[in-house]
Specification:
This protein has two domains: 196 residues, 2-Layer Sandwich (D-amino Acid Aminotransferase, Chain A, domain 1), CATH 3.30.470.10; 176 residues, D-amino Acid Aminotransferase, Chain A, domain 2. It is α+β, with helices and mostly antiparallel strands and 394 residues long. The structure holds 2-OXO-4-methylpentanoic acid. This is Branched-chain-amino-acid aminotransferase.
């Protein structure tokens, strides 16, 4: 089998219809939802003290699934919203042994009129379904699951912070609760969603960060699972991340074959440069190899820049050697990361083969395109005007 066949066989690309053979059974039905509000609401943390992902709201959503011979019909149980609580799991649950787990990152925003909004939630559902399919887990009905998530946000609306840069981060997650030490398909799943009020991902806010281009460790490869949001993609990045921190860098820039740029620890990565043909170009790694996460922010940036028609917009493999050459020839204009958690994150420099590739010189400002992209995205996310990507919750 050629590598190309393997990529086609193993990878489910975002945007393609996902044929999930895993048995689905009864679909999620938001009308059957039970809501048990907490009798013990917790005090809110002052907005300025919020640290990304450390504080959780009062309620969580849970939807259990089981295979048809575990329960008569099989399928998704009625959704439940209840007080945020620890989960009780068998120590044999296969999530704990074989990382049968995937998750999403989404945000709910409070707009200038106090209304709650989601940003392109259908794309998160599409990616969730491709991650579930890769783990041979059943898919979710996107509309039904979005309905349940909206209800969770409504229940904890007081937990959604106000102001640009603030939001509540949603973490839909599916874990296999099936107690089985054999390496096999799960028969019991818990799908849940917790929420965390957040400010900027980095305490420094919209300040440029330095990356460490790791030439030793690899995050993902063609035919692997780098294009899905499975938890197993993240655990093994911690040690390299610690090395990056030791070297004074905020995140790892993951490289593929021939040191091609793939993505950064918690975000996709873009370069804005004048290419060898003298054209201005915004460029990011392609999804076709299957080693890059199909980020919702990534896609939105490509679509916005495409509509502006002011420069070339390209998805193709870029080698670090090309980045260094562009820098040395004065053609590298800007670099930034993009993701739900960070939105847009300016890159100051990349430490590559013991040399700093400086993008923003000490004392210089964040590049105009990086800033414009942040503004364009947040204007939509916070509902400054009506836009089809911003979905009202109430
Ligand atoms: C997100 O941006 O939503 C992510 O999932 C990144 C995360 C690993 C913090």
């Amino acid at each position: 089998m050629s590598l190309d066949d393997l990529v086609v066989r193993c990878n489910i690309k975002m945007g393609e219809s996902v044929h999930n053979e895993a048995p689905d059974g009864t679909p999620i039905d938001p009308k059957l939802m039970r809501i048990q509000r907490t009798t013990n609401p917790r005090p809110k943390v002052p907005q300025k003290e919020l640290v990304f992902g450390k504080v959780f709201s009062d309620h969580m959503l849970e939807i259990d699934w089981d295979y048809k011979n575990v329960r008569k019909e099989g399928g998704w149980h009625p959704p439940v919203i209840s007080a945020y609580h620890p989960l009780s799991l068998s120590p044999a649950a296969s999530v704990l042994h074989y990382a049968l787990e995937c998750f999403e990152g989404m945000k709910a925003y409070k707009d200038v009129c106090g209304r709650l909004r989601l940003f392109r939630p259908e794309l998160n559902m599409q990616r969730l379904n491709s991650s579930l399919a890769r783990l041979y887990m059943p898919s979710v009905d996107p509309d039904a699951f979005i309905e349940c998530i909206k209800e969770l946000v409504r229940q904890d609306r007081d937990w959604v912070p106000e102001g640009i840069g603030y939001s509540i981060y949603l973490r839909p997650t599916a874990i296999s609760t099936y107690p089985f030490l054999g390496v096999g398909a799960t028969k019991e799943i818990k799908l849940f969603c917790i929420m965390s009020p957040v400010g900027p991902y980095y305490p420094e806010g919209f300040n440029p960060i330095k990356l460490y281009a790791d030439t030793l460790n690899v995050r993902a490869w063609p035919g692997g699972v780098g294009n899905t949001k499975v938890g197993g993609n993240y655990g093994p990045t911690i040690r390299p991340q610690m090395e990056a921190t030791r070297l004074g860098c905020a995140q790892v820039l993951w490289l593929g074959e021939d040191h091609t740029v793939t993505e950064v620890g918690a975000m996709n990565v873009f370069f804005f440069w004048v290419n060898e043909q003298g054209e201005k170009e915004l460029i990011t790694a392609p999804l076709c190899r299957g080693d890059v996460l199909p980020g919702v922010t990534r896609r939105s940036i490509l679509e916005l820049a495409g509509k502006w028609r002011e420069f070339k917009v390209t998805e193709r493999a870029v080698g670090m050697k090309e980045v260094v050459k562009a820098k040395n020839e004065g053609r590298l204009l800007e670099a930034f990361g993009a993701g739900t958690a960070v939105v847009v994150c300016p890159i100051r420099a990349i430490l590559y083969e013991e040399e700093d590739v400086v993008v923003i010189k000490e004392g210089d400002d964040v590049g105009p395109l990086t800033k414009r992209m942040w503004d364009a995205l947040t204007d939509i996310q916070y509902g400054k005007f009506d836009h089809p990507w911003s979905v009202l919750i109430d």
